[in-house]
Amino acid sequence: MSEADVKTAAKQGQDPNKQARRVAFDPTIPSDKPQEYYDRIKRKFEEERDIRLAYRPDGLSQYTSELTGELAKYEVDPYAEERIEREPIEDFAECLFIGGGFSALLTAARLRERGVESIRIVERGSDVGGTWYWNRYPGAACDVSAYDYLPLLDEMGHVPKSFFAKGPEIYAHCQAIARRYDLYDLAIFQTTVTSTRWDEKEKLWRLETDRGDKLSARFVIVANGTLAKPKLSRIKGMETYKGHSFHTSRFDYAYCGQNLENLKDKTVGIIGTGASAVQIVPRVGKAAKELYVFQRTPSAIDIRDDVPTDPEWAASLKPGWQEERIRHHVLTTKPDPEKRKEIEKRIPSAYDVGKVQIDYPIVYNESMNTVLIQELMRFNKLGQVIKNSLRDMKRSIRGELVMSVELEALGLSMFNGQVQSNC
C-alpha cells in the first residue's frame, strides 16, 4: 500500500484506544468452540511443519550470517558515505551499551533521567536506530500500532503521523532521542565489540573492539538486537552470480534509484515472502520491467487498514498519554476477576521497569497478547533489582549485572529477504 493509499482520517476524534481494540484479543475468555476444533488446527500445522522439515532437513543450517569472501558484500553498509578512520580509544564509562537500537536508547534515556552522566554506545552501524538504521527498503514500516511501539513519545512531544509509522519517521525519532539525551557525546559508530571480560580485581568490564579500542565499564548492557545482521539462504551459485544483488537490510538505492526509477528496464527477482517482501514487492513490481517472486512458504496477508493521525486528536493529548494508553491495554484484556487482580497488583512495579529500562511497548493482538502479559510479569522482579542497582550503582551489585534487553524482536518482523536483479 502506497503513502497515497492511506485512508483519510475519520472526522471524529481519533481515540487511540478504539484504534487499538481492532486488534484486541483476550486469551483468558473461554471459547465457545470445542477442543476438537483447536486440535484439528494444531494437527494441520504439525502436518505442514513435517512436510517442510522433510523437504529441508538441514533446518536453520540452510541459512548463514557468516558473510565472508564473495558474500562479504551483502553486509557492507550502503548508508555510510565512508569509513571514518580514528585512533583506538582507551577509556572508562559507567554504562556501556553494545548496540544502538531501541533497547539502548530507552535504557540510556532512563539512566539520564536518573542522573547517570557517563554513558557510551558502541554500534557497528554509522548511527543509532538499530533495525531502523539498517532496514530502509521501500515501504518499510512498523506492523503494530505506532502509538504503542515508538518509545518516549510523550517525553519527545511526538505523535506518529499514522497508525503504522513509516521507517524514515521511526529512524528520525531514534536520532531525536539520541540528541535529546546527549547520547551522541560518547557514542562510537562503525565499531563492533569483539570481546568482553570481567575484571574481578577491579570490578569492571573490559571490552575490546575491531578498531583496537580497549574500553572499561562498570555496567555493560547488551542491546544488540536480532534484526540488524543479514541472513542469507544457502543457494548454490550465490558466490559466482554475475548480476547485481543485495540484501534488503542493505538496500542499494544507488543502483535502484531513490524512487526505484532505475529498475524500469530491469528484470528483478525477490527471494522470500516474509515481512520485508510483503512491503517491497508492490513497489518493485510497479517500478521494474519484470518481477519474479520466489516463494517457498506463503505469508499471511491482510488489509493494512492504515489511517493518518487526526491532528485534532493529537492536539488533545494530555501529558502522560502514552503511559495511560499502555495501562489501558493491560486493564482492558477482560481477564477473570482473579486474573485482573493479579495483573493490577503487578502494574506499578512493571511501570518501574519501564521508567528504568524499556518503556515496554505493549500492543495486544492475537499473536502477542499472552506473550506480553507474561513478559510484563517476568520483568516485575527484575525491575526491582535494576531499580535498586541504579539507585546506588557503586554500593549495589557493583557492575556484575549484564542487563540483556534484546527486546526489539517482540515488536518487529524478521527481515530475511534478498533482492537480485538481472540487467
Biggest beta-sheet profile: 6 strands, mixed
What coarse outline follows from CA principal-axis ratios? globular
Low-confidence stretches: 1-13, 348-423
Distance from N terminus to C terminus (CA atoms, Å) equals: 27 Å
Order of secondary-structure elements: HHEEHEHHHHEEEEEHEHEHHHHEE
Integer average pLDDT: 77
Brief overview, please?
By secondary structure, this protein is an alpha/beta fold. The protein has helices spanning 16-21, 35-55, 102-113, 131-134, 146-149, 153-156, 167-180, 253-256, 275-287, 311-316, 321-331, 337-358, 369-391; strands at 63-64, 90-98, 119-122, 193-199, 204-209, 214-222, 232-233, 244-247, 267-271, 290-294, 402-404, 418-422.
Descriptive notes:
The strands form 3 sheets. Strands 2, 3, 4, 5, 6 and 11 form a 6-stranded mixed sheet that branches. Strands 8-12-9-10 form a 4-stranded mixed sheet, with helices on one face. Strands 1-7 form a two-stranded antiparallel ribbon. Strand 2 (about 90-100), helix 3 (about 100-115) and strand 3 form a beta-alpha-beta unit. It has helices at about 15-20, 35-55, 100-115, 130-135, 145-150, 155, 165-180, 255, 275-285, 310-315, 320-330, 335-360, 370-390; strands spanning about 65, 90-100, 120, 195-200, 205-210, 215-220, 230-235, 245, 265-270, 290-295, 400-405, 420. About 35% of the residues lie in helices and about 15% in strands. It starts with 15 loop residues before the first helix and ends with a strand. The chain has about 425 residues and is α/β, with parallel strands linked by helices.
